[in-house]
Specification:
Layout (H helix, E strand, L loop, with lengths): L1 H13 L16 H15 L1 H4 L10 H17 L8 H5 L3 H14 L2 H7 L5 H18 L10 H6 L26 H10 L13 H30 L3 H24 L16 H8 L5 H6 L4 H11 L2 H14 L7 H70 L3 H88 L6 H58 L3 H46 L2 H28 L1
Length: 639
């Protein structure tokens, strides 16, 4: 138990418990020290649960009982299954306290256990204080500055809050992996502002950096997912895959530019569906106004007159010119007459505009009908051409047949000979084709099987490549974690005191292991001796029973004939009974000795539990409680 107690004391000191250097065992713990150790462990394990616990015993007995009960409930909430109550802390015994402390030390978080091995340097103390400050601030709910109470004003920053506004940053490392020109390098070195000076407001620096980092991380993840899903299947290198993707994008932009350049100026009727892409719409927005838009724009009398001159028929030009001339204000007309003339001119232009729109719509419909009619006529023309070709072929066959009718018998004989020759030629060609077909089919099957095998092999290699990529990614992550762990361990190694002799701890551990091995060997020997003794006892008992049975049978036969032998038989039965009683007495004696040893061990355990001292303390606490009750009763009577 010495080693266990030393480990427990070391862990308690790392949690902040003030354990004296003279204390080397749990047996030396006082009630105050036990309470402090348990409370500090509970606070490290669960700060919320241990925040309301007191680490010192109050002077009053009733308050002590309440503290013990609350601490026992906290330990049960942490998962302690043993018997625990206020008596565990006020009237403690060594085994219960040891098991409780072992449970709490095992429940300590690993971070605190790792940090416990580090010396309390200035940087460690600063980091701990910063972490505690942040935890304390996060424990309080956030409220707007106008709604904060005086307590929250102290714990939360009263400064103004800024909205999350980001701006695109220009970072030199974003072009990493590319060959930079001299001008770009000079720009980045001499003209490019620092990151903190690029946003218009200093409060936008952090949001801009977060947005930039998020965008780069998202782009890297998208590229990785696209490469794993599509890039590997293309069987190209990453550079070739990027080049092919860029060429496709350029080709698509070129097609959109060409379609936008050849697209008609008007967009069709209002109800027509839109079938162009966003890029076409963007390109369309860069074009100038159409003819109808020009007509609708505001202009002078001369502009309207000029436009109508190029768009209307010659017969209507004279009438329009007369109307425009009549609408021109003369020197003798008043301002009201001018306005009336302008209104009449405006109404006339609107009527003309509506008439033009109707004419355009009518012409558009007529054009559509004509296009449909032309398409139908073209289809009918194609069908008639096909039927004419068929009829021409039929007519040619009939003409050749009519030409052969005058000499029908000779022509039939010639035709029969041609048919037989054609049949023989077909048979000959079929035999020749079979000779060539068999090796070609075998070659085709072989190539097909080879292609299938290559596809399977490529699929297998592709899956292996994917697995290798996953393993590489996992190995890279593990390598990063191990590098971080290695750095931490190196830092811990540098911070460890140099005067500690590791060989002494190693020798001590080896001695403990050697003692355990010796104890195991002794226990094994004792068990073997016990088994041997049990076998010998069983053998002797069986031998005794068999010997008695044989002797009893022989003596019983002779006892029927001789009186002296009958007495011997009685003495033999009495001897067997006495031996059985003697064996039973020996067994009872061994059982009693074992019970005596068990009772002695229980007595030692009870002596270790300090039962007498606890009873004396209980009596003293009982007297103190009675005195407190008497004092309270006296105060009540006086009141």
């Amino acid at each position: 138990m010495e080693e266990v107690d030393k480990i427990l004391i070391h862990a308690l000191r790392q949690t902040g418990t003030e354990v004296g250097e003279d204390i080397q065992s749990v047996k030396q713990f006082t009630s105050e020290l036990i309470l402090e150790a348990v409370v500090r462990c509970v606070r490290v394990i669960n700060p919320v649960l241990g925040g309301g616990l007191s680490s010192s015993l109050p002077p009053g007995m009733s308050a002590r009982f309440r503290v013990g009960m609350s601490l026992a409930q906290a330990c049960q909430d942490l998962g302690y299954k043993g018997e625990i109550g206020y008596q565990t802390f006020l009237y403690s015994n060594e085994p219960e306290i040891r098991s409780l402390l072992m449970f709490l030390v095992e429940k300590l978080p690993r971070e605190s256990a790792e940090a416990s091995d580090q010396p309390a340097g200035k940087s460690v103390v600063l980091q701990k204080s910063i972490a505690n400050k942040i935890k304390g601030q996060l424990a309080h709910p956030w409220l707007p500055p106008n709604c904060r109470l005086p307590l929250l004003c102290k714990t939360q920053s009263p400064g103004p809050c800024h909205s999350f506004r980001s701006q695109v940053l220009s970072l030199p490392y974003s072009s990493k992996g590319k060959k930079l020109s001299k001008e770009l390098k000079d720009y980045q070195r001499d003209i490019l502002l620092p990151v903190t000076a690029q946003p218009p407001h200093y409060a936008s620096v952090a949001p801009s950096l977060l947005e930039q980092h998020t965008a780069e991380l998202s782009a890297a993840q998208d590229w990785e997912s696209e490469w794993n899903s599509q890039g590997l299947l293309s069987r190209l290198t990453p550079e070739e895959y990027r080049l092919r993707k860029q060429n496709r994008l350029h080709k698509r932009i070129k097609e959109q530019l060409c379609s936008a350049a050849t697209q008609p100026s008007h967009s069709g009727p209002p109800g027509a569906p839109r079938s162009i892409s966003d890029l076409s719409e963007l390109l369309q927005s860069f074009k100038g106004p159409t003819l109808m838009e020009d007509l609708l724009t505001k202009g002078t009398h001369f502009t309207h007159t000029q436009r109508f001159t190029f768009t209307q028929e010659p017969e209507k030009l004279v009438q329009q010119m007369a109307a425009v001339a009549s609408s021109m204000p003369s020197s003798g007309q008043s301002e009201g007459d001018v306005q009336v003339g302008q209104q009449e001119e405006l109404s006339l232009l609107q009527q003309q505009l509506q008439q033009l729109a109707l004419n355009i719509d009518q012409l558009t419909e007529d054009t559509k009908q004509n296009n449909i009619t032309i398409a139908q006529v073209r289809d009918e023309l194609k069908h008639k051409e096909v039927s004419n070709r068929e009829k021409e072929d039929t007519m040619l066959v009939k003409k050749q047949t009519v030409d052969l009718l005058p000499d029908a018998e000779n022509n039939l004989a010639k035709l029969q000979m041609l048919v037989e020759a054609s049949a023989k030629r077909v048979v000959n060609l079929a035999s020749q084709w079979e000779k060539h077909r068999a090796p070609l089919i075998d070659e085709h099957r072989r190539l097909k099987q080879l292609c299938t095998n290559q596809d399977m092999e490529s699929s297998r290699k592709l899956s292996e490549v994917k697995d290798l990529h996953d393993k590489i990614r996992q190995s890279a992550e593990e390598a990063k974690k191990k590098e971080i762990l290695c750095k931490q361990l190196m830092t811990e190694l540098e911070n460890l005191p140099k005067d500690v002799c590791r060989s002494a701890y190693t020798l001590r551990i080896l001695e403990i292991v050697g003692n355990i091995k010796k104890q195991k060997e002794e226990i094994t020997k004792i068990l073997l001796d016990t088994k041997e003794l049990q076998k010998e006892i069983n053998g002797l008992t069986g031998k005794l029973d068999r010997t008695f049975a044989v002797t009893d049978e022989l003596v019983f036969k002779d006892a029927k004939k001789d009186e002296s032998v009958r007495k011997s038989y009685k003495y033999l039965a009495a001897l067997h009974e006495n031996c059985s009683q003697l064996i039973q007495t020996i067994e009872d004696t061994g059982t009693i000795l074992r019970e005596i040893r068990d009772l002695e061990e229980q007595i030692e355990t009870e002596n270790g539990n300090k039962t007498v001292a606890n009873l004396e303390r209980i009596l003293e606490d009982y007297k103190a409680i009675r005195q407190e009750n008497s004092a309270l009763a006296a105060k009540v009577r006086e009141g």
